[in-house]
Amino acid sequence: MTAAQPRPAIQVLPPSAAERIAAGEVVERPASVVKELVENSLDAGARRITVEIEGAGQRLIRVTDDGDGIPAGELPLAFERFATSKIRSAADLARVRTYGFRGEALPSIAAVARVTMVTRPRGAEAAARIVVSGGRREAAGPTGGADGTAVTVEHLFFNTPARREFLRSDPRESAVIVETVEGLALAAPDVSFRLVLEGREVLWTPPEPFAARARRILGPQLVEHLLDLEAAGALARMAGVLGTPQVAQPRRARQWFLVNGRVVRSALLSRALAEAFRTLIPEDRHPVAVLSLHVPPEEVDVNVHPRKAEVRFVDERALGGWVTSHIRRALREAHLAHVAPPPGAPEAGSAEASAGPARPYPGPAEDAGTGAAVAEAEGLWIPGPAAAHGWPAIQLIGQLGLTYIVGDAGGDLVLIDQHAAHERILFERLMDLRAAGGVEAQGLVVPVAVELTRAEAALLEKVHPALRALGFEAEPFGPSAVRLTAIPAIAARRSPEELFRACLRDLDDAGAANAGRDLAERLAIATACHTALRAGDRLDPSTMRALLDDLARARDPFSCFHGRPTMVRIRSRDVERWFYRRM
Amino acid sequence: MRIHCVQHQLLRGVQTVARAISPRASMPILGNVLLEASEDRVKLAATDLELGIESYVEATVAEDGAVTLPARILTDIVSNLPEGDVEIRVPEGESRATITCEKVRFEVLGLPAADFPVLPSSDGDVLVRLDAGLLRTMIRQTSFAVSTDETRPFLTGVYLVLEGETGQLVATDGGRLALRRAKIPSPEGGKITAIVPGKTMSELVRALGGVEGEVTIASHENQVLFALPGMRFISRLIAGQFPNYEQVIPKEYKQRIRVGTERLLRAVRRASITARDSANVVRLSASDGTLTITSNTPDVGTAEEQVGVEVEGDAVPVAFNAKFLMDALGNIDAAEVFFDLTGPLSPGALRPVEHPDYVYVLAPVRVYG
User: What ipTM was estimated for this complex?
Assistant: First the structure.
């Protein structure tokens, strides 16, 4: 800074500038406007809410409800900051039951757009209309209109070009809007929602129970792969819908968490969900789920985020464990085998179903009767819990390509990946042995010398006790080598050196694929993985039968611990369709 | 080429050599059997380039010559021919064979004999002559212990040591080791140490089953040749250093258990029923003339059995892989064995009571509780 320039004096900003700055906190992108307006509608007791979007929300956002409306006299106040009907004093803050209460939303939006509000309280003689643009009132007066409120937001960010610059592409902003409305629809299942995007109806919901709403929001493609979840305990009540491992997504997009009826982001709940699915899905996939938790208000702080999008819990650890264990229990009770898609259907885990926010929304015609109706018409509807049964009885047919065991499960064709299946069996056996303290190490009459790299040697020092607990006996042998004198008995058929190195290597990678697993688990995984039968191993019928028996006894038989499925089931009726025995 | 031979002799020859063929033969010619007629016999040969097997079939040779024919087709044809005289005819310069037997006539397309890999014709330097039955026993008592771990190829064969009056076969997969010695009646004075692939040994055992007489063992560059009456096995050797096995064999013991072989085998087999789910571990403990064998698998069950034995020394409770025990007990060919234990963490040894020529060393399973 040069001395020539005089320092600008401190001064209070003119209201217009201050409002625009404040607006930035509330109105980040078109979806924030949608959220604020729909929440206002919900707070106004609306039973039906219609959201219309044009130009990805920049040209037009209109939210129409059949709620209470605002008396004409109060209308101008609605656009004043900190003007609200939802609380009366600071003391009310602790008892907030409405979505909004700070009185910031409307003035913030109006500061950066042209807002037209038409509102008519039930029984009022006429509707009132007010237009505010860039924070300045442009018109007000009586008009014609239906009961309820319609807010139209046009030319969003017309006076804040910098904010416009930060917006993403139109499809992306539209997707965020869709996701926002979906979240709001989840939070208010008793309200009918309609979302019209660029003239196309992409979402319509009748008032319905929460579980039905959750299924509808998750989409018709997933409907066959969903399980209902319900749990109640001292810490919380939980209800929700879980996607089976088969429909786990490459992104976290199909996860919704509601806490006390409000959609929130919660690292805790994400983690708890991921933990429950651990080893059931690959590390780079994310479960599909809608989870709604009700916890006592004193157990949760909703005010950590200006938009109340995040929450903190008082006892995070206990709650996380509770959530995980109940999800796990629901998964254990269910039949989680991957099911081959019926002929001609898009695969449930495929791009079409998994593209998340950017997925192409089905047109109105397909969407009109989302979920149950469509599925029922095709005869595919299987209610989650009713389909839930354990591992099926499998009659062995044979081996396919030296890789898969082929079986008959009550007329369905099942394919079992021999490596994945054996991995799962060995993994659980190793973990059990460890838990029981009965690890068995096969001694070697001919010890194996293993040359170590410096990194491996350094690592070995750290993990030596854990390796020993698995059954490896390694003694120093010269400066950069060890001698293996015993290896895990369970792995006695494999190359000791290869197994040992693999275990060390897997530990070295700890940061990546195995994050969150403890050492013993990682070692068990490495051991099981490198011990298990491989693709290409020829199996005789008795070995295959034994494998199926062992797998049937496993706790999580449907996937290996890398989250790959052990079994894919091809329904008999789909086989019939292939042969045109059934249309 | 034009020959006459007897159907069952031809069949035996074809079946013997066809065992060398790999089901995943990389070249078509390696799926074929070579037929080479000269003087009063037909030489049959097949190979997977690791192992070559030759068999000689008596024949009336009207016209010398050679051809190769697909092994599967040839086996199927010969085994389905009526018993009697078989004529095989190949026109000069062609590789199409006509096989005739009584009223049956086949024409089979083959490949030229010139394309067939050359197996060494010389027997090399003969090192040793051994009785076929003895060699068969020696191989049977050791080859089950070879490793299948391809990362340590030198353990996937049987180590053959011939020196002076002693012949030895040794095999180990790391967890157990089997060693069989034999006296060589009339040593030829050579010395050989070679690792012979497990597959060669198992085919040799099979072939030796129907043979009486003497086997000569010879070496030829990196190959070993076994000449049996009517057939030859030519095998590539496995490169690498076989582990120093002498130091593995316990020289003393803390406890010596003398037990009936069959009695112990049955007990271990029974105990292994409830050991299957874990690492097939059976536990042994002997004192006061009783050997107690137990096994225990959580979620499956337990077994316990007492066997009357003679015991010398203090009790050494120890656990072994049941399969390791059963493999040895089933092949040891002795009414009674010494089971020498050196400690719960150190190898035990099985030896026949009758003779010192066999020893089987097995590492215990360590159970951490």
Answer: 0.76
